[in-house]
Amino acid sequence: MAELLVLGIESTAHTFSCSVVRKGRKGEILSNVNSVYRPEKGGIHPREAARHHTAVAPEVLKECLDAARVGIGELDAIAYSAGPGLGPCLRVGAVVARALAYRYGKPLVPVNHAIGHIELGRLLTGAKDPVVLLVSGGHTAIACFGSRRWRVFGETLDLTIGQLLDQFGRAAGFPSPSGPLIESLAKRSDRFIDLPYVVKGNDVSFSGLLTAAKKLLSKEPLEDVCYSLQEVAFSMLTEVTERALAFSEKGELMVVGGVAANERLRSMLEFVAEEQGAELKVVPKAYSGDCGAQIAWTGALEFEAGISVPVDEAFVRQDWRFDRVEVCWSS
Ligand code: AMP
Ligand code: MG
What we know:
The protein is an alpha/beta fold. The protein folds into 2 domains: 4-117 and 288-324, ATPase, nucleotide binding domain (Nucleotidyltransferase, domain 5), CATH 3.30.420; 129-286, ATPase, nucleotide binding domain (Nucleotidyltransferase, domain 5). Helix content is 41%, strand content 21%. The protein has helices at 46-68, 87-104, 113-125, 161-171, 179-186, 207-216, 222-248, 263-275, 292-304; strands at residues 4-10, 15-23, 27-36, 77-83, 108-112, 131-135, 140-146, 149-155, 199-200, 203-204, 252-256, 279-282. The strands form 3 sheets. It has a 5-stranded mixed β-sheet, sandwiched between helices. Strands 8-7-6-11-12 form a 5-stranded mixed β-sheet, sandwiched between helices. Strands 9-10 form a two-stranded antiparallel ribbon. A hairpin with a 3-residue loop joins strand 2 and strand 3. The longest helix is centred in the C-terminal third of the chain and has 27 residues, at 222-248. It is globular.
């Protein structure tokens, strides 16, 4: 197929983002414009976030097309994040995508957001057949590819790692999202306070850790609590990841999602990857969090493989698991 130009629209949670990618023999991100909803207090309020997305959508879309120097008429397809995510937020992205597809007569491509993180990670790191550690606000999973699907080796039984960090941060009065501040405070300490470490089989559970860490807030120095929280949570993830590497014998470990930006997590994973003879590949920080590029790029792969939906059959699915997607564009 000739070169493709695809617009991607991301709106699963806090971020509204548009991106244009070009797919020839290689992939190129021509633009990626984000606008993040930041609540003044508390966590994401789905309707408030959706209101933010609705307000910024025209400007973000215009900036994205201008930066890519592409007119809507030149696009081959329009991709949108169809799930999983917060219903009101997902609907904003889907409505914008549907309206553009209808008005300009363009094919519409639904993209699973988690698959988006993985495919963009593969494009940017060059990973071919990795064990994937997906660590973000919406996901915590360790997966390997086999027989056209991502197979989940282990995952969280309750909170995601992003929820653990952000909910702890909220209790400590940190701005949201809290991962970066927790990381910088943790760097100032090396005093470890014991906290619940819960790995069940290949799955992790963070709710007991969150409760215990919050209880320490009034008793121990903040730096020590942040340090200990990171050490325990990241060790749990590293244990399961090491098991996946040993079991699958894959030669690459790829880390994607917003928490991939964390240097301490990266250094723990570097250690086990080396032990298991695998190469560690971490998505670049600029593209670790939610962004339109993950949707545009995966949309281009899907569209090239023949996937699109009629405008009146476009859907969003709040609970669309990524291991339910048949990945027909990869073998
Ligand atoms: P995503 O859902 O992929 O956009 O990822 C967002 C999550 O990444 C939030 O929970 C953030 O707190 C977290 N995050 C961002 N930067 C860091 C960091 N440096 N260390 C740990 N977590 C981070
Ligand atoms: Mg995400």
